[in-house]
Amino acid sequence: MENVKRTIMITGGAGFIGSHVVRLFVNKYPGYHIINVDKLTYAGNLANLRDIENKPNYSFARIDICDFDAVLNLMKAEKVDGIIHLAAESHVDRSIKDPFTFARTNVLGTLSLLQAAKACWEPFDAEKPYRFYHISTDEVYGALGFDGTMFTEDRRYDPHSPYSASKASSDHFVRAFHDTYGLPTLVTNCSNNYGPYQFPEKLIPLFINNIRHRKPLPVYGKGENVRDWLYVEDHARAIDLIFHEGKIAETYNIGGFNEWKNIDLIKVLVRTVDRLLGRPEGADMDLITFVKDRAGHDLRYAIDSSKLKNELGWEPSLQFEEGIEKTVRWYLDNQDWLDNVTSGDYQNYYEQMYKNR
Ligand code: NAD
Ligand code: DAU
């Protein structure tokens, strides 16, 4: 497999999860040409890929996925034979303030990619079958109570936020393109990811940074909401496996069977940051500040990923304690990265860099 020549388009590759997927594919498959297609919104940052940006099998195209002509031209010119689609607006709080942007990118952007893929897709040989692989979220299934139930793949969709509604809509379009036109599609729905290179508006990087700088930790509501956390490299490994071995038209749930109540997770973060900074462990608990709840805040997510384990043999490789330790260390060691992405300067920097190329 490693030596087969393929051209894979990965959208959203300069964001959090996408950058890990691009890195994995570029390093693992030297015979593949990996094209990272990204608009570089506030969440996209080419510094996430500095370690692989000069590899001969990697290239970057700054394209808005809603730009149908640009997407189509690239797919045709490069003879793309696989698409892994991660580009999206991904932050629930932003979707509450600005739902149009979410509908545009997540729904129309996905549709634009599907239409372009349909126009270019030809039967490929068995060694490199065509795939349109759409990365989605567990949030499309809605919220669970505290009754121990979990989301399985046949769960009815019940999205509550504009973000999850836009992702649900994009999932439906992907399946419709399989059912209507026969496009070889795959969809996966994953739980909350954590790890290096996550934009610090999301809970874990935001709180690590705030604890370091002794800023308040804004806990929504009573902190009783539950999320199911997976280390981002385990998600990237699952994507690799499903892209190559998943059955066409199937849906796979991806999750770590690792549920945490927000407030308990936040206490782990406080203790870990304190310890790694040489402060008395737990000294910064007083930063915890309960604030107004997120509108429509889903109570609990829990992914049942047994299908993926039983059919393709995937399991998370990292224990949560180890993953959190690695993650906290990474953010503490990469304050420059955090400062850059929060300053907004990096966008101008990369804009200049690409103008000058
Ligand atoms: P992210 O916000 O970190 O990155 C998104 C990337 O998409 C950025 O690089 C951004 O520049 C790019 N992008 C946004 N709009 C674009 C457009 N119109 N055209 C081209 N590029 C555009 O997101 P993430 O957390 O890495 O999530 C990646 C994908 O995984 C999303 O589809 C998300 O719904 C899904 N997902 C995320 C999680 C999670 O916990 N973060 C869990 C499950 C699924
Ligand atoms: O479940 C998968 C989803 O996980 C992905 O599809 C989304 O793209 C990703 O952003 C994430 O969504 P969440 O809303 O669960 O993640 P977030 O980090 O924003 O919040 C995690 C929990 O922490 C949630 O219950 C809200 C709470 N929270 C979050 C922030 C940013 C706080 O209490 N305070 C905060 O400041």
What is the topology?
Blueprint: E1 6-11, H1 16-28, E2 32-38, E3 58-62, H2 68-78, E4 82-85, H3 92-97, H4 99-120, E5 131-137, H5 162-181, E6 185-190, E7 192-194, H6 203-212, E8 217-220, E9 226-231, H7 232-245, E10 251-254, E11 259-261, H8 262-276, E12 288-291, H9 306-312, H10 320-333, H11 335-343, H12 345-355
Parallel strand pairs: 1-2, 1-4, 2-3, 4-5, 5-6, 6-10, 7-9, 8-12
Antiparallel strand pairs: 9-11
Helix pairs in contact: 1-7, 2-4, 4-5, 6-8, 8-10
The structure holds nicotinamide-adenine-dinucleotide and 2'deoxy-thymidine-5'-diphospho-alpha-D-glucose.
Nicotinamide-adenine-dinucleotide binds at residues 12, 14-18, 38-41, 43-44, 64-66, 86-90, 105, 109, 135, 137, 167, 190, 192-193, 199.
